[in-house]
Amino acid sequence: MRGMEKKQVEDILKLASKFEKGGASNTLKGKILATLFFEPSTRTRFSFESAMKRLGGTCVGFSSIEGTSVKKGETLIDTVNIMSGYSDCIVIRHSKEGAAKLASEHSSVPIVNAGDGSHDHPTQTLLDLYTIKKSLKNFNGLRVGICGDLRYGRTGRPLSIALSNYDTEISFISPPQLSMDKSTVKYIRDNGTNVKEVLKIEDVIRELDVLYMTRIQRERFPTEEEYLKFSGHYIVNKELMNLAKKNMILMHPLPRVNEISVEVDSDPRAKYFEQSRNGVPTRMAVLYTAMKK
Amino acid sequence: MRGMEKKQVEDILKLASKFEKGGASNTLKGKILATLFFEPSTRTRFSFESAMKRLGGTCVGFSSIEGTSVKKGETLIDTVNIMSGYSDCIVIRHSKEGAAKLASEHSSVPIVNAGDGSHDHPTQTLLDLYTIKKSLKNFNGLRVGICGDLRYGRTGRPLSIALSNYDTEISFISPPQLSMDKSTVKYIRDNGTNVKEVLKIEDVIRELDVLYMTRIQRERFPTEEEYLKFSGHYIVNKELMNLAKKNMILMHPLPRVNEISVEVDSDPRAKYFEQSRNGVPTRMAVLYTAMKK
Amino acid sequence: MRGMEKKQVEDILKLASKFEKGGASNTLKGKILATLFFEPSTRTRFSFESAMKRLGGTCVGFSSIEGTSVKKGETLIDTVNIMSGYSDCIVIRHSKEGAAKLASEHSSVPIVNAGDGSHDHPTQTLLDLYTIKKSLKNFNGLRVGICGDLRYGRTGRPLSIALSNYDTEISFISPPQLSMDKSTVKYIRDNGTNVKEVLKIEDVIRELDVLYMTRIQRERFPTEEEYLKFSGHYIVNKELMNLAKKNMILMHPLPRVNEISVEVDSDPRAKYFEQSRNGVPTRMAVLYTAMKK
User: Fold this and answer.
1) What is residue C293's predicted lDDT score, i.e. its pLDDT?
2) Which alpha helices (H) appear in B88-222, and where do they start and end?
3) Is pLDDT at C72 greater than 70 in this prediction?
4) Of 3.40.50.300, 3.40.50.720, 3.50.50.60, 3.40.50.1370, which CATH number belongs to A6-119+279-292?
5) pLDDT surpassing 80 at residue A208
6) Which of A255, A256, B105, B275 has the fewest Cβ atoms nearer than 10 Å?
7) Sign of CA dihedral C15, C98, C90, B17
């Protein structure tokens, strides 16, 4: 099976909901979290740190490899080996796929994957699921559109895999050169989920319960013309929101560049800032689960 | 009215004095302060962090925008919106004037301005006032000289405005090209304060109760000759201190380059290191006030 | 006398052992440690921070001088003067010899040296001694080999000086151009310790109780050929470990590049990761001693 176990996911979501309501502030008192960000990611790092501190714990770590032993030629395995001697849990973010798994094989403390390569970013998926559940109560019966750079983006793939464990319908919305890889599409279909692949948001927005936007990076396109030709199709503005259901929710892992116009921020269906805030209770649940084992 | 309300200032100074005497160590336990330094400032950041920790709280944040989402094109508003979901209060330092005000319009938690542009730096002004009050008991009747780069410097302007709310006399000491802007001088005079504008410290030092030095940056001058011609006039050494009153106090927001000779450090009138230390109780009072609202 | 007092060392080692067994978690509650790393050192910084947090305290600081007031021309003395106003103890790492001593002359709080120049790194020496004592119970009677860059390396010199206070025999193993300086060799001999100087690990490994490896940096050699000619002699692999005593311990301050082959990691005599972990209780003892004075 790919991704996280359904039961494991649901336990985290329940715990996150409990933590969001408060009352767990000293559960990890005296514990130290090491945050090893081999690749920078302010948002993810801060929400892990806030989560750890909300639980009463403390953090050590680095936010980029500048000035670390990695620069002196130290291997990931040695770094993890050593840091596990200084802490009770390690959060790792790395540009290489499989880094978190490799780390977990050499650590005496639990490893939490905060994103490796374009492979996986499980706590992002968990907070995405948490946001959907909080707004729409149930995953079954949902029609979810995932839009943007589905090929190289880190968030769309694991979210669609997690949703395929429920009775959902998924629409992948992207330019052809950034479409979801065939293997993932097949996996999701084999899991019993109906998948559509479309070019434009307009093609599906009327039927969606969730529209999940992601960034399209200019550098993915061979020429500026091609970028401009496509990027216009992947911007959510007021006009487009007028076509959507009254209770559709609009999500984005952030940071956004221009995929969602600022004018949409005040629409009650815009959930991306709440989604970002949900990172704290979700990561509290992940850290608690890792350290209470 | 420009600057902070007189009453608000006096409340902070009273609270700071209480905190300096001790006994408030767990007041902000469980609270998280986000320190967003879009522009680096070690001293200010450290004293905010120390203040927060002295109150029992914790901090997350960045010390420069390297490796943050700002580099991915995220707007200040989005950053603030997101960070306010991770924290209970945000301290913001930014190179652009008005950044703190803009931030406060988009944050669900209190914003504390830790300096924006050459506009304002209110907690520096508060600790400057705290230092003066601690040494000289009263603002009324004081003659204060403010010396250095009054045009582009961030500290002299708001300090002089704050002092103009009391019965003080202010001497601005600077080269003509770095003099205080006319609008500020007019505002202070209209506020009932006597203002002198002089070229040299010698012109006024005999009568001063406070001499507030600031850095003059070489790059403000068109030529090296012009810099050398002026900079010599703005250095406080033993000789100059001999002209000053026995109970004058010498201040500097630090870091200094050569505006105050090291030989002066042992003079009991040299208050700049104590002034820097006063940043902790003053910022404790600011953070406590912001988060207890 | 060079280095630390024997009595002082033994007190720290005893306290470290007590801390390693647990039960001191809130001893430094409310205290703030300032970590001033003018030169980056992830490992040392993290283990100091972990030590402080294990004792219930908190940290502020910088991990490199990028973005600090040092870049604006502030002197070490001013930085220390100011930081001592924000904290209860300062840990300082600096590229210049004597920096920690200079700092301690201008600080109102205790200074802990976390390495200055190639001069000294006393907490590394303490954790090295702690590791030896933990494994081998006693310093008297030990034969210790110290291998690698003994000239410019920061760890071999103070360790050999500390060991010369006991009834030990020391073998310095290095290429001639990186040999231990004559003055240190003389000092150790005058202290009553038998010293051997050899070229290869093979020359002494059979008799050693401790083999302490250090990194040899490529840039120490005038040509690539010379580097390759020598570096091969200073790699510990399984073959070499087969020559060693059954209870010899293999140490390294880390990070390693290739001085110890990964195949040796699973050998029970490989103590370098445990040695690194020992940095936490040792530094807890150092911080506790500094702040309880």
Assistant:
1) 66
2) 99-104, 122-136, 156-163, 182-190
3) no
4) 3.40.50.1370
5) yes
6) B105
7) positive
Relative to beta strand B169-173, strand B194-198 is parallel
Distance from the Cα of C107 to chain A's closest Cα (Å) equals 26
Give the pLDDT of residue B72. Answer: 67
Task: Say whether pTM exceeds 0.80.
Answer: yes
Instruction: Check B277 against C85: CB less than 8 A apart.
Output: yes
The residue with greater pLDDT, B225 or B90, is B90
C6-120+277-292: CATH topology is: Rossmann fold (3.40.50)
Angle between helices A42-54 and A279-292 (to 10 degrees): 60
Smallest CA–CA distance, residue B52 to chain A, in Å, is: 13
List pLDDT tens digits, range A147-158: 999 998 889 999
Which H or E run contains A198? strand A194-198
All residues of chain B having their beta carbon less than 8 Å from the beta carbon of residue C62 are 42, 63
Segments of chain B assigned to CATH 3.40.50.1370? 6-121+279-292, 122-276
Question: Between chains, do B69 and A43 touch, taking CB under 8 Å as contact?
Answer: yes
| Dihedral sign, Cα of residue B39, residue B41, residue B46, residue B47 | negative
CA dihedral A47, A48, A54, A55 (to 10 degrees): 160
User: How many angstroms separate the CA of residue A2 from the nearest CA in chain B?
Assistant: 30
Residues 138-167 of B with CB under 8 A from C: none
C43/A contact by beta carbon, under 8 A: yes
Which residue in C274, C284, C278 sits closest to C51, CA to CA? Answer: C284
